[in-house]
Specification:
By secondary structure, the protein is an alpha+beta fold. Helix content is 58%, strand content 13%. The protein has two domains: 81 residues, no CATH class; 208 residues, MetI-like (MetI-like fold). The strands form two sheets. The chain has a three-stranded antiparallel beta sheet, with no helix packed on it. Strands 4-5 form a two-stranded antiparallel ribbon.
Amino acid sequence: MDIAEAEDIKTKKKITDEEKYYVATQGQLMWRKFRKHKLAITGGSVLLFFYFLAIFCGFFSTQDITTHNLKHMYAPPQRIHLFAEDGLHFPFVYGLKGKVDPVTLRKTYVEDKTEIHTIKFFHHGDRYKFWNLFWTDIHLLGVDKGTLFLMGTDHLGRDLFSRNLYASRISLSIGLVGVGLSFFLGCLLGGISGYFGGAVDMLIQRLIEFLICIPTIPLWMGLSAALPKKWSPIGVFFGISIIFSVIGWCGLARVVRGKILELREADFAMAARIAGATDLYIIARHLLPSFFSYLIVHLTMAIPGMILGETALSFLGLGIREPAVSWGVLLQNSQHVRTIAFHPWLLFPGLFVVIVVLAFNFVGDGLRDAADPYKL
């Protein structure tokens, strides 16, 4: 084979960008347009970062979340320094020295520059159970002596940086669990209602109307207050997830019903019916995937609602309870204006909720645009 023939073969195998565009799958088209949405990519990166921290919260925490530092109650966040009076240092923090104001009797903290505590990486500190599989004591950051409060402490002297990391596990996962249940119920009941119609459709639609008429917050408060006080934190977690799914499926079910009513007499559905496919198979395999892009967008927009719902219930004392921690539980300490005025670092969980909800909205906005990949 000479050089000319080799180049001719390469030319024939080469597919232009325009041809790639028309032979690409639906997923490839969506990804091509989604990655051009800068806010969506930024939001997705933020979410991956938060979920990564939540998965490895034990490793990234600096100490055990139940450790009480009674000498450092309401201690402010410690600043990390690189320069001391004698020059450049490895990252370190100064010690904290408390003093009581003789007039207000309020305890404040100042940096004790006579104490320099070097921050060590892969530090051996408090023991924790990694993924509930084995015990280890390796943390990303830590100090041999002194304290390391990157986000300050609460009223019992517990490290808020570590508690926020552990709280993210529940606050971020409860959205996934709750939305997963409501997504399943919405697709199942909405699909059955739209496909079969008749008495089944009438019954499901009246149930949806009844649930939608009930005020959301009072319903959540009533159902969560009915949870037994003796339940473990894990039991309360799944109980709250089920509560969020009780009415979370109603809106999705109505949309799915409308789409199924539109598509159930389409040619591809009729062909599957003639081929002998069962009704549930036609719904799950043919009808739902035909508007799956909308379902994906719904998922990304529903998760922030679940996170906000858990945060609100836990903030009111009706959701996750101690010793389990979530962002809503941590925000209970910031219910008083006086506390916030003197200790503003207690609002860090609220900041994380805002960031995560915005990130989900950005991702949902990008997915909504990418759902129509042929639109310029």
